[in-house]
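Handout for the seminar on molecular recognition.
Each group receives one record of this type.
Step one: identify the two inputs.
Step two: read the structure output and locate the region that could contact zinc ion.
Step three: write two sentences on what you found, then compare them with the reference statements printed after the record.
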Amino acid sequence: MFACTNCRLPYPEIGAPYRCPRCSAPFGLQGEIQVKREELDNEQPGIWRYRNTFGLPQGAKPVSLGEGDTPLVWADVLGTQVAFKCEYLNPTGSFKDRGSAVLTAHLFSRGVKTLLEDSSGNAGASLAAYAARAGLQARIFVPDSASGPKRNQIQAYGAEVIRIMGPRSNAGEAVVRALQKDDSQVTAYASHAYLPFNLPGYATLAYELVEQLGESPGTLVLPVGQGGLLLGATYGFQALIKSGAISHLPRLIGVQSSACAPLWALHAYGPAGLGWVAEATTLAEGIRVRSPVRGDAVLEAVSRSQGTMMAVDEEKILDGRNQLALRGFYVEPTSAVVWEALVQLVGRTPEPIVAVLTGSGLKYGQV
Ligand SMILES: [Zn+2]
């Protein structure tokens, strides 16, 4: 089910390399996910009803904290009803739990004992929680700019937190150095960006949305850093198209912070746009990703859906946070980028419109 995105080497049966040992490209999904109603395990909670789509070995132990089955709540945006998918109500307060649960189950089934990860916060907190649940050690490398509540959350789960100065990308480089020094066979870089195991987990977002709406969304609006959620959800919608449950992909709208918007720049201007992409500080720390690992695949999915990428300025992020809170949704600034996108889109994009609220405001102490 998983293979190198470049040379097509199947993911090895043994070990847990974070990228292809032959050509260094990331592993991805090979072919399409098959989702069949008769294969759902309705005895299981949340995302684990779909465990047959996760590519786990037979008999692999689920690692679960009750992720998935999040509410879909309708609210008014400039006279249009928009459905908000409350992913911040997942066990660690972010959508990452859908991916971490599946990723940790895969690594656990391969005998891994220690997980290394770099994260600006949510992915690290999520992985630390699932490592704790599975009885694994976690070492999380975080940029020094990551918000205090997220660092505290990671530590509380029993993970070791290593603070790395400088831009976000320095933390990833620090993990690779640590991995090279570690000659243990049971330590893995449990990268949410490189490893493909979380993508079938994110695909469950699509299955749930179609169940909750009774149809495909017309438009799906979500924050994009690495773009894993957008990509995983796309695989989910494609699986539902193949099974005949829906007829079309929703229009995918990926939203970035103007301070660091490489995929928006590429989508808007082609390769010429990349020359001036910054990695500036932003309230939307969770999507501050200068070089997304699967950027090409994310942009292809957006284009195929007739969607677009958008970039939101700093002052609009805070305004969005406040507007969402006034409707009862307390999300972190990263999630709030969707507000300005909705303001620009309502009335001009297919309905029903779904916006994904990715992370909890309780994790962000500064504004
Ligand atoms: Zn390869």
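Reference statements: Residues 126 and 314 are 26 Å apart (CA to CA). The chain is about 35% helix and 15% strand.
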